[in-house]
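Retro notes, structure queue

What went well: the backlog is down to a handful. What didn't: a couple of records were mislabeled last round, so from now on we paste the full input next to the output in the thread. Example, using D-alanyl-D-alanine carboxypeptidase family protein from Sphaerisporangium aureirubrum:
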Amino acid sequence: MPAPRSVGLVAVVMAVVSLFVVTGSGMAQAGAVEGVKPRRGPGDLTELRREAERSSKELAEATKALEQRQGTLTKADKELKGKLAELQKANVELSKVRKPLSDLVQSLYQAPSGGDLAPLFSGQEEGSLQALSDMTYLVSGRDEVLADAGRLYQEQQKLAGQAQDLRANKLLVEAQLNMEIDTLRKRSATVVKTLTRTLVKLGVKVNSGGRTGAACDPTQVRAADNFPNGLLPVNVLCPLQQRGQELRADAAIAFVALNEAYRKRFGKPMCVTDSYRSLGDQQAVFYRRPGFAAVPGRSNHGLGLAVDLCGGVDVFRSAQFNWLETNGKQFGWIHPDWAYSSPFEPWHWEYDPKIGSLL
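Corresponding output:
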């Protein structure tokens, strides 16, 4: 039967774990209602992207905290092993203290007529000295032996309780961490799934051309940093609504939101002549239009962060250009300073991740 301390600790642990299960479920449901509720309009994409990035950041922070706390758990494990070693040592010491008294009592019970103490009780002189010595040891040492045994027993009980507390604490911490990570992971996945569905409804063929849903996942944009300019693989590029055009996930999501606002204002989507350029495409443009294209390997097109537009935006101070200049920053898109004069490229627009992260 488990000790009262054990029963209490187990009950506490189970109660806390149950609480986290309920809380985690509630958080997931809350995320589904508040953070992932159905949205309509271009601003909703921005909010979904921001929520996805926020969820990813929280998950990363929780994972980092888990790694840090693992050090604490490792230390607790070490302390637990130490306590168990002390407990084993206390058991050995207790056995040593009890053994002489136990052996003597056992000899008295096993030997007939009082065993080694028989000469003392029978009045026989032979062996009486030894018998007296045994009796003296038994009487004078009894209190000391019992006191030592009691002290060691108390220490044994204390160490056993500490070891049990450490086990329960370890179980509780692990349950809390795992529940927190699991809840955040589910929340992040739910937000990204909702974002993907929204993009598909707006005409973005997320899984086209050998891509996976992760290609349009803004929490995965760091994957693009692992590849050189102009050599981004298809699975880190998100397609646009304009056929054949693609950008890095965060830029693409922001552009789709901007495109919807533009469509609402002008009654048609933006016209895109160019977006992501491979290194080969950059070289072709550089030699075809010297002085009007960045050195291959240095263009923002090669990072999936730039577009060249048409349909009126390419005409400086047209209604379309002015509208985009006024409203683009609300979606993270800017007309860079150099494009106003050196060289003059009214059609060239870039996504600024720093601005986008502040939206």
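Agreed that this is the format going forward. Reviewer comment attached to the example: The chain has eight helices and six strands.
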